[in-house]
Amino acid sequence: MASRGNRMEASMAPEATLQSEVLKALRFPIAVGDILRKRLVLKKELLKQTNLVPTRIAILGGSTTTEVKSMLELFLLAQGIEPAFYESGYNRYAEDVEFENPDLWNFKPNIVFLHTTWHNISEFPELLEAEVEVERRVRREMARFESLWEKIHAELGALIIQNNFDLPRLRPLGNLEASESFGSVNFVLRLNAEFAGYARSHSRFLINDILYLSVQVGQAAWFRNSYWYNFHMALSPTATVSLAHNLAAIVKSVYGKSKKCLVLDLDNTLWGGVIGDDGLHNLILGKDHPVGEAFLDFQRYVKGLKRRGVILAVCSKNDAENAKEGFSHPDSVLKLEDFSAFKANWNPKPETIREIATELNIGLDSIVFIDDNPAERALVAEQLPEVAVPNVGSDVSGFAEVLEHERFFEVDKVVQDDLSRSAYYSSNAQRSTCQARFSNYEEFLASLEMTAEIGAFLPVYLERITQLINKTNQFNLTTRRYTSGEVEAIAQDPAFITLYGRLADKFGDNGLVSVLIGQVSDETIQLDLWLMSCRVLKREMEFAMFDALVERCQARGISKIVGVYIPSKKNSMVAGHYASLGFSPMGGASEGRELWCYHVPPTYSPRTRYIRRTAEALLAAASAESASVPSEV
Amino acid sequence: MPMTHDEFLLQMDEILDLPAGTLRGHERLEELPNWDSTSLITFIALAETNYDVYVSPGQIVTCSTVADLLRLAQSESSSS
Prior knowledge:
The complex is a heterodimer. By secondary structure, chain A is an alpha/beta fold. In chain A, strand 7 (311-317), helix 15 and strand 8 form a beta-alpha-beta unit. In chain A, helix 6 (131-156) packs parallel to helix 8. The longest helix of chain A is centred in the first third of the chain and has 26 residues, at 131-156. In chain A, 45% of the residues are buried. Residues 1-18 and 622-633 of chain A have low confidence and may be disordered. By secondary structure, chain B is an all-alpha fold. Chains A and B meet through helix 2, helix 3 and helix 11 of A and helix 1 and helix 2 of B.
């Protein structure tokens, strides 16, 4: 927040855009009645968005799923994802898979959502049943579900999102249901532990934690007899909204659309008081004060987000030195070095947030902004509609709860690149400083001492590759999206040449930053996908990738590389990409699709001047290549 | 406070995706294009929210017009 005399009245903020108003209905605190009532209006408005990412979701239900579909559609559209749906008949979730319902098979889902609840547990233990028999029931139930999951993975190649189980409505044994091995609560928790174990050991399998959701919504509101007996809805309309919101967050994370960066105000957001007026020692922070403890807990929550890869930045109206001093408070859990960007000045916050996005090289749509001041929130929301500005109120004790409910930073997996992301963005600032010391750009590139690991897709990188494929918009020649199942299938298909690229320099590891997929037919390869993270623009990483591609083409006797460029609203930066690599325009182009051709020469001079390819990568790539190429090639 | 007749009609306009002020009350439910199982469940959920009453699908089936729906919600409200 600003100093006390600089507070802007919320009522002075201009009207928010229609789009923001529409989205507001789907944000915390969610007004279930409004969403139910305005469902059709909301859908119509949300469908006006452009650049929606299409996906195909099969909902296989153990109960009625019409409402689930309807609500899920809204929340997905709000995330920029446009779903097409397949719905099983009532309680036909198992039969549809077991008997290979042709409608489902022809639908070719990207995602299969198994909407089962405790009603679909086929056998609960008998009273006083021996523990060993209860275990057998657990195994049988697991075997039943595992056979479905394995068939879906093997034959449909889809990502699976599986509900765990909520708790039965009634407890005839009272509290013993939780403690006795034959108790229903105990049994459900055993099954949930098994489901979780399966999720840990299988990729492309995610749990939708409805046990947590039912606790959050409250058991009485989660399940209602009236909806069950009249419609066989296992969830009330209120619970259905909560389920859909949670599911959409999972799908969003699968498509790499979760937020990356949390931009924070300081005064009365990370500590109580105004540091410029009150001074360091009068800040309210720490266990000695009830409000101070709430600020401390919020700082701990933010630190936790940072630890798992969320980038932190400060946007504060303050003198910079005053603002920095706040982090020397003895009770401050957050330290200056936790922030990848730090902006304390008197400029309008939308302007400062733009600077942060530029400095960190991330899109505004990757940012969540937290400020206790409603006027500042309104201004940012109005001027930067891409930035998520949750209505956190002014009471710090609720800030973390709002962030949690919004599911901004949902992840489908924590990968090593996520953990080091914050370090990367901090070291990027050092790169910028370093760049300023050189008289020309080539000298700067040489000084970075860059090394690249480039190879065929490896299982360990598939999660990150999928993440990158589904979120990269700018340096992306075709903007084609692939599910993790499709990526895995392509990685194993010898008809494709795949390349991933990691780039490191003397300041740190940039992680996996580039992906290329080409389909081979005789002596020609067509590049279906080529993308690169904007983290490493102008570092010649695209040259290193091209060198690696040419080497592979030479090794496989491929003489012609066809580059595809599909212009979008966001990828104009790569319009000249193929021309810059020496490709020539070729026939066969259509509206909205350009084709470029490159004839692989017998001797090729690498384009890369400043990136050294690591020997380990070359070996790993060669071994993966030989494993995926049939012997006759 | 229970909603008025006009407020109810405006909510039904929204549920059925009609321009505000379209419904007058006399419209027959079976002739409304978006009156389906989803809007029926929505009506039940809103009756709970707005009137704190549960209206069963069996009771709704006896309603012919939009005004009948309002009368049903109000009568259940007064009898509860």
